[in-house]
Design brief:
200 residues; Rossmann fold; 6-stranded parallel β-sheet; two-stranded antiparallel ribbon
């Protein structure tokens, strides 16, 4: 059976860096890779890491492509069945609908064997909590299913104290709904001491 690794954490903590590290290692080992992201995430193509430039803006530091944008389980099964990858990656898992749990179960429990789909590893990465401090999408269920669960922590952007890692995502003002796709202009990594719920 395939192993399941789930990487969770706040925004700008290093989840994408961990994904890219695993992709590089898989590539060096000669494994085939297929990466997916949900249609709701419209921020950029590929899996990207970011760095801050001299003007204090976040810019892309490194990127992995191609990444297939999917809107249904059938989109995933079609690609996986045709390409038979050794490693399957789901990025921004918090944005997938509830069906992502069944898709991952089918992959790791070899329920798709009849279609010739037998991946060696499934890797999922996503935000573990929304900016209001509640669990993000299906990430709690995916973390519970994982063979390996990794919680990534970064540096609090607000106090910048190394002994107070970012475990939360800070958003100054509430948007129109709980889910608001955005980057550093909207969200900041924060420690528990600095984090506050978004102002309404």
């Amino acid at each position: 059976m395939a192993t399941l690794t789930v990487i969770g954490g706040p925004m700008f903590a290093g989840k994408s860096e961990e994904l890219l590290r695993r992709i590089k290692n898989a590539d060096l080992a000669g494994l085939t890779i297929e990466a997916f992201r949900p249609v709701l995430d419209t921020r950029q193509d590929g899996i990207a890491t970011w760095r801050m430039n001299s003007e204090g803006e976040f810019v892309v530091a490194e990127k992995y492509e191609p990444v297939t944008v999917v809107n249904s389980p059938e989109d995933i099964y079609t690609v996986v069945g045709a390409k038979e990858p050794n490693m399957i990656i789901f990025d921004e898992a918090q944005f997938y609908p509830d069906w992502i749990v069944d898709v991952v179960k089918n992959l790791i429990f070899e329920r798709l064997r009849k279609f010739g789909v037998l991946p060696q590893e499934v890797v999922v990465a996503g935000l573990d909590m929304w900016a209001d401090g509640t669990p993000a999408g299906q990430m709690p269920n995916l973390l519970a299913m994982a063979d390996v669960a990794i919680k990534i922590r970064g540096t609090c952007y607000l106090c910048k104290k190394p002994k107070k890692p970012s475990v939360m995502t800070y958003k100054e003002r509430a948007g129109e709904g709980q889910v608001e796709v955005g980057g550093f202009k909207i969200y900041k990594p924060a420690c528990r001491g600095c984090w506050r719920p978004p102002k309404k």
